[in-house]
């Protein structure tokens, strides 16, 4: 099975199926049996499948503002534009109007990302051919500078939810794109640790939501255990957990970490990253306001090629346990599921 940065490519697909429910639909199921040389080859196949599905439904359309010189009035008259037309001795009117068009931002992002994948050397020629064929249906859609997309501003509703997973993949692809200055060709780095970290966190959360509904898995905020009446709360950072599991009176906070190295070297001694430990300890301390010892924490690292990896725990004075664990993503997915099953029986 092909690997990318120590993770089976097929496992990245399985992680995506947890992060995005759309991938569990029938039209994507065949992908699980495919072999992929690298993660961008996988993304090209998912986008091809997803866009084919979109085309059957019809591409999303929005009202897009246009300004055009016409012989008859359409929409609103642009006075300044019309004056310029008259100065140029043209008899046309400058009109502003809204057109219900497929040339909207969602489709522009899809088209521009597909073109980037087509220009990527490691995407197989057959998948490039499929993408080129699909792009014929995007003739009325403009390409855009992907660096200019403000991803946080994208909003999805009932009519556009089929785009959500595809645009999330586009974000993964785009954030790994480098635009060369010599020929203007698109080149891609390997799938970045930052992107894998986001996927890793979402995968773990959705895994426990699906397989352990009784644990009420959530990614929630923790309030600071301070006297708010006399404290300046604006200077305190938000404490947002990756995964929080609840069972009876106990709570387990999981902080998912995807690093190139899971441990730091301090005076020839292998130790947990200081910032990681302080962070999870702060989560536990601030949630367990009554010092009951019923709140535990876990640093869950994606396993690397290091010989020494975290697999131990410490117990705080109040009885809270901080676990250090690793999840080996470089094995068949059924084994990954068994590891995650075992973690909730710590």
UniProtKB/TrEMBL annotation:
It comes from the Bacteria. It holds the Pfam family McrBC. Coiled coil: none annotated. InterPro entries: McrC, McrC_bac. GO terms for biological process: DNA restriction-modification system. PANTHER family: PROTEIN MCRC, TYPE IV METHYL-DIRECTED RESTRICTION ENZYME ECOKMCRBC. This is 5-methylcytosine-specific restriction enzyme subunit McrC.
């Amino acid at each position: 099975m092909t690997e990318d940065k120590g993770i089976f490519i097929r496992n990245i697909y399985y992680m995506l199926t947890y992060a995005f429910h759309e991938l569990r639909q029938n039209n994507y199921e065949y992908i699980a049996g495919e072999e992929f040389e690298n993660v961008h080859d996988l993304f090209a196949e998912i986008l091809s499948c997803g866009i084919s599905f979109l085309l059957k439904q019809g591409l999303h359309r929005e009202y897009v503002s246009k300004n055009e010189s016409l012989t008859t009035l359409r929409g609103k008259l642009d006075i300044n534009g019309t004056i310029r037309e008259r100065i140029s001795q043209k008899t046309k009117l400058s009109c502003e109007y809204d057109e219900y068009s497929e040339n909207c931002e969602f489709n522009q992002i899809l088209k521009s990302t597909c073109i980037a994948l087509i220009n990527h050397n490691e995407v197989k020629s057959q998948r490039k051919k499929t993408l080129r064929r699909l792009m014929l249906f995007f003739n009325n859609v403009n390409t855009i500078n992907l660096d200019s997309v403000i991803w946080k501003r994208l909003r999805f509703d009932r009519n556009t939810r089929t785009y959500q997973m595809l645009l999330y993949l586009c974000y993964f692809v785009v954030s790994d794109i480098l635009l060369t200055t010599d020929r203007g060709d698109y080149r891609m780095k390997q799938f970045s640790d930052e992107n894998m970290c986001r996927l890793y966190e979402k995968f773990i959360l959705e895994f426990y939501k699906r397989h352990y509904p009784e644990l009420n898995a959530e990614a929630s905020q923790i309030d600071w255990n301070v006297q708010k009446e006399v404290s300046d709360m604006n200077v305190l950072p938000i404490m947002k957990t990756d995964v929080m599991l609840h069972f009876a009176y106990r709570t387990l906070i999981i902080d998912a970490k995807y690093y190139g190295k899971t441990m730091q070297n301090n005076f020839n001694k292998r130790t947990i990253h200081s910032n990681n430990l302080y962070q999870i300890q702060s989560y536990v301390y601030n949630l367990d306001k009554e010092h009951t010892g019923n709140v535990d924490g876990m640093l869950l690292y994606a396993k690397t090629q290091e010989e020494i990896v975290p697999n131990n725990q410490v117990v705080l004075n109040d009885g809270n346990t901080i676990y250090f664990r690793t999840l080996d993503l470089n094995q068949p997915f059924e084994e990954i599921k068994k590891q995650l099953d075992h973690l909730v029986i710590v």
